[in-house]
Write a structure and sequence with these properties.
The complex is a heterodimer of chains A (79) and B (203). By secondary structure, chain A is mostly helical. Chain A is 73% helix and 0% strand. The N and C termini of chain A lie far apart (68 Å). Chain B has 203 residues and is mainly α. Chain B has two domains: 111 residues, Rna Polymerase Sigma Factor, Chain: A, CATH 1.10.1740.10; 78 residues, Winged helix-like DNA-binding domain superfamily/Winged helix DNA-binding domain (Arc Repressor Mutant, subunit A). The chains are: A mainly alpha (79), B mainly alpha (203). Bound molecules: zinc ion.
Chain lengths: 79, 203
């Protein structure tokens, strides 16, 4: 396995989707190639950082409009 | 090993689907409010993959919840409730995105709402605290330039922490296609960060 092939397979490796012949080749390459070991580390750090992004919520106006819509629809349905 | 770990987008004591669905059908407002508060952030982020402004994404999420209110009586439980809601969202957002691209060139919206890809009401709450502002901005920039299919996958998998099976179901794509889109998206974000650090001589 060369470095380009390694880089293409990182997500498959992380999803445990490599076949039984590629997986040992992937791990062997990482063990002997400092560049790819570094790439792997930065790749997984990026994934961690993506999971820490703040997420804005609904505006209070939209939220209360939706709660009102829910109440009205429920009232109609129970009539 | 990861069984006991609480991931973003999951709450351990969240009621199971039958309880939620029964609550919605009987008009239990507390149940609806719980869902709204639990899922709307992720829905806004996903909608943003398809439409051009945050205001537009908010309308997509609103329309989705209105559709859910109307249709929950017909929910058959063939998928999880969350998958069902997210599929409605994706359809709504795609339709709106197509309409936007036909009617308003993105550049002409600029004067009204130049919101770019910044989260408008990011309160800097506890979720964001761990990540340095600079890195956060770079990542948001990179995510903002991704094609919508890649952006949708990376949003669900890495930002919301959903599993690949659920993501395939929400987006109606194959596992192989999902992995390709996810890998391209991650590599693009990583490259954007690397270009920045290389320029600075940083890590
Ligand atoms: Zn290598």
């Amino acid at each position: 396995m060369n470095c380009d092939e390694f880089a293409e397979l990182v997500t498959a490796f992380l999803d445990d989707a490599l076949d039984s012949s590629s997986r040992p080749l992937f791990l062997d390459h990482m063990a002997v190639c400092g560049g790819c070991a570094g790439y792997y580390g930065r790749f997984t750090a990026t994934i961690t950082a993506l999971g820490e992004l703040p997420a804005p919520g609904l505006s209070p106006q939209t939220r209360s409009r939706l709660l009102t819509a829910f109440r009205e629809t429920s009232a109609e349905n129970s009539e | 090993m990861s069984e006991g770990v609480v991931r973003l987008g999951e709450v351990t004591d969240f009621p199971p689907d039958p309880v939620i669905v029964a609550g919605l059908r009987s008009g239990d407002e507390a149940v609806f409010a719980l869902l709204l508060d639990e899922w709307s952030r992720g829905m806004l982020r996903l909608a943003r993959s398809y439409v051009s402004t945050a205001a537009s994404a908010e309308e997509v999420v609103q329309d989705t919840w209105l559709a859910v209110i109307r249709a929950v009586g017909a929910f058959e439980g063939r998928s999880s409730l969350r998958t069902w809601v997210y599929r409605i969202l994706v359809n709504t957002a795609r339709r709106r995105g197509e309409r936007e691209s036909r009617t308003i060139p993105v550049s002409s919206v600029g004067g009204e709402r130049p919101d770019g890809d910044r989260p408008e009401r990011a309160e800097g709450g506890p979720e964001g605290a761990a990540l340095a502002g600079e890195v956060r901005e770079l990542i948001e920039q990179a995510v903002g330039t991704l094609p919508s299919r890649q952006r949708a996958v990376i949003t669900l998998r890495d930002m919301e922490g959903y599993g690949s099976d659920e993501v395939c179901e929400i987006l109606s794509i194959s596992p192989a296609n999902q992995r390709v889109l996810l890998h391209r998206a991650r590599a693009a974000v990583r490259d954007h960060l690397a270009a920045y650090y290389d320029g600075k001589g940083g890590p």
